[in-house]
Design goal:
The chain is mostly helical. It has 18 helices and 2 strands. Helices cover 53% and strands 2% of the residues.
Amino acid sequence: MIRMLQDLTGTDPTTVALDDEKVMSIFKSTEALGITPDDIGGCQLGCLGIPEFGTDFVIQMLIDTKPEAFSDLVRISGLSHGTDVWLNNAQTVIAEGKATISTAICTRDDIMTYLINMGVESSHAFSIMENVRKGKVAKGKCAQWPEWKKEMKDHGVPDWYVWSCEQIKYMFPKAHAAAYVMMAWRIAYYKINYPLEYYAAYFSIRASAFSYETMCMGRGVLDEEIKMYRKLASDQNSKLTAKQENTLKDLKIAEEMYARGYEFTPIDIFKASPHHCTIVDGKIMPRLDCIDGLGDKAADQVVEAAKDGRFLSLDDFQQRSRVSRSVIDHMVELGLLSDLPESNQLSLFDIV
């Protein structure tokens, strides 16, 4: 996705400053996007569609931890990838005021560096980190833990920190978290400064349930669809399937795009790309393969057929593109082939 954004904008992602306050702001509010939470179903942040930070789970983490800098996002990434590191652990001690996002245990490296700074012997600090991050302490499989626990307390390590170590089943390495956040940060930069290119790239690369019929037929159609999905998601007696969750995720991104004042333009089979969205006259032209029934191969066939010039009729389109009749009928319903006659044959009425 970053490569596509670079190609579309001509901006090198490696030049994006990691202390850009405007980029940081979308992890705290929607203001930088020029919209309000009410415009996007109540979502309080602008990081929908940002890798690692766009899920409901991580968005709630951001709201709870109130990050202020890139380094805080690295710590949040560590929390979100660990097991029993955030839930029933850091979330609790932060809510109780015993720790902040800067002092809670977030990545495996935090343990060793913190303990060394507290005066714990370095080899012991390393061993404690290894046994905690692998979950051996939490599972009661670390024979040295009583001894190390006493050593930690003797060096002034607070009780909440020791308790936190005892909950952890798995911890993420800081270097991995930093790499993930760097990628997310760069994409967030494009989202703010190059919105059309961002949405074109998102719907080309990351959208797994992008649908021309529900997302590209105008705001009214989208609103009805997303209303239905949100109602399903809020029903205590049902649970969204994985496919429905993916659809809702992509619907939210389309909703945000419309809220920011950007739109889709109808597919032109002579201009559209088979697998990537394109920008045409300040609007996004969806990719051909997002049409229901028009898969990867068929989309490629349509593009190849269009290279030979205008189609004379629906029959001509079918013969040259080898697309099934049912898909052609659907494309006619969508208004994509409505200007073509049924057949190459001329009737007296056509002449008149």
